[in-house]
Amino acid sequence: MDTPHSPYKQYKPPPPPPPPPPPPPPPPNSFTNPIKPFPLPPKTLKPKTHKPIDSHLHRLRRNGRLQDAILALEQGRPIKPRTYISLLQSCIDSESIELGRRLHSSAAAPLEGGADPFVGAKLVSMYAKCGSLDDARKVFDEMRERNLFAWSAMIGACVREHRWEEVAGLFACMVGEEVMPDRFLLTRILQACANTGT
């Protein structure tokens, strides 16, 4: 039995072995570490488009600021056909053919008779009621599509100016394009026939 003064040393266990090194990283094409997809290019930004200003133009028109409304329209902002028609009606109410011409030549001119027959009919009416039947006929002749409103506006303008023979010619063209007159237009045509004796 050992004593405190025994020549034999007390046994000590050896230190634990060091931990094994970490495993090497998996190859890039393995399922555990798939290849990262190529980054997509950033989305192309859409060009900014101006919002329609119809409500602003209606507000100016109701406040009697027709010239300011046309000035705003000349900046090239898009509007709806019905807004264009309401501005043309304001030109008729004010009997201002100069403002009507500015409106016709404004940036919204693609909305006119070549693209929208209702706008074209209103242009015809505007020129005729503001005293320029020749301009009204020019717009009418350039229209690609002429509805009943366009025919009524043009024939009605000729009736007001007592151009009876022109009314008869327009009616013949109207029948040729298979457009049927309503009772109001038919009354005007009969009036023209009575004055020409046809």
TrEMBL record:
<dbReference type="Pfam" id="PF01535">
    <property type="entry name" value="PPR"/>
</dbReference>
<dbReference type="InterPro" id="IPR002885">
    <property type="entry name" value="PPR_rpt"/>
</dbReference>
<keyword id="KW-0677">Repeat</keyword>
<dbReference type="InterPro" id="IPR011990">
    <property type="entry name" value="TPR-like_helical_dom_sf"/>
</dbReference>
<dbReference type="InterPro" id="IPR046960">
    <property type="entry name" value="PPR_At4g14850-like_plant"/>
</dbReference>
<feature type="repeat" description="PPR">
    <location>
        <begin position="116"/>
        <end position="150"/>
    </location>
</feature>
<keyword id="KW-0809">Transit peptide</keyword>
<feature type="region of interest" description="Disordered">
    <location>
        <begin position="1"/>
        <end position="54"/>
    </location>
</feature>
<dbReference type="GO" id="GO:0009451">
    <property type="term" value="P:RNA modification"/>
</dbReference>
<dbReference type="GO" id="GO:0003723">
    <property type="term" value="F:RNA binding"/>
</dbReference>
<protein>
    <recommendedName>
        <fullName>Pentatricopeptide repeat-containing protein</fullName>
    </recommendedName>
</protein>
<feature type="compositionally biased region" description="Pro residues">
    <location>
        <begin position="12"/>
        <end position="29"/>
    </location>
</feature>
